[in-house]
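Quick log. Single chain, no ligands specified.
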Amino acid sequence: MSAQYFRFAAHAAAAHAAAAPRRSALLEQLLARADGFVPVHDWRSDAFRIIAPPSLSMPAVAAAALCAESGPMEAAWVCLAAPVHYVAEMSNVRLAPGGLLALTRAEAEALALDFNGVWRDSGTRLLAGRSAALYCIFDRALQVTTCDPQEVQNLHIEEYLPAGPDAAVVRRMMSEIEMWLFEHVVNGARSARGVPPITGLWLWGGGAPLAALPKTAGFCAGDDVFFNAFAGAASGGAGVIIVPQVPGSDAWHHAEAQWLKPAVAQLRSGGISRLDLSAGARCFGVTARARLRFWRRRKPWWEFFG
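-> predicted structure:
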C-alpha cells in the first residue's frame, strides 16, 4: 500500500514557536494518535522512498534540481549555491534566523555573470536557473558532505560546514565568495530596497550531474528544491508534500484543506496505508488504527516535534 509523506518546514516551525504559535486541531489529533516517531537524519531520502522503486538510489539534490531546470550538463560535480545572510558574533558566525534568502532572477543572473568573469579559467562557474536558483559547477569531481542550510538557520555555522576529503576546496570557495560579495553592486541594490544583503553562498547538495531524471511513481507537491524536480499533478496515492506554511497560521488553513484533509480521507478509506508527519528531527507515522486511539490527549503540535 502507498503512503504520503508530509514535511513541515523545520526552520519555520522553530521560528514560529518562539513567537506565540497557534494550535492546529487536525494536526495535533493525528500526532497524538500516531504510532510514535522515528529519528530523521535525512528527510529527503526518507521521503524519496515513498515515490521511488526500492532499487533506485536517490540522486544528489543539486543534480536533480539542475537536470529539471537545464537538462544534461557537461560537468564533473554540481552543488547548489544558496544565498544566505550571516551574522558575525564575538567568536562565531551564525546563519541568521530567516537567513536563507530569495533572489530575483535578475539578481541571480547578475551574480552568475560577475562570478564567471572573476573566476574565469578556474574550473568553477556559477549558473542561474530559471527559478533564480544558483548552481556552482566544478570541472572536477569532489568528495564532500554538506548540510542543508534550512537546518542551519539561527545556528553557528562551524560544525555544519562541508566535510570530507575535498572539503577544503569547497570551504575555500565559500570564503572567497564572502569577500567577493562584500560591497557587491547587487547588495547595494538590495540595501536600497531595504532587504538583507547576501553575505555568502552556502554550497550544498552536491553530486555528479544527471543525464536524465530517474523515473518515480506518485506525486510531489509544495515547494522544495529537490522535490520540485519530480512535481506532478496530484491524483491521490503515494506522494510527498512539502508544507512551508506554519501550522496554525492564517496561511496554514489553505494547505490543510488542500493536502492534509484529503490525505486523512484517503487513509480512512484505505486509499493509502500511512501518513508520515515530519519536521525537524522527528517523523511520526499515522495508520488507520489511529482512530482507535481517541483517548490520547492532544498537546500543542510544536511539543511533538521538540
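The first helix runs from residue 10 to 17.
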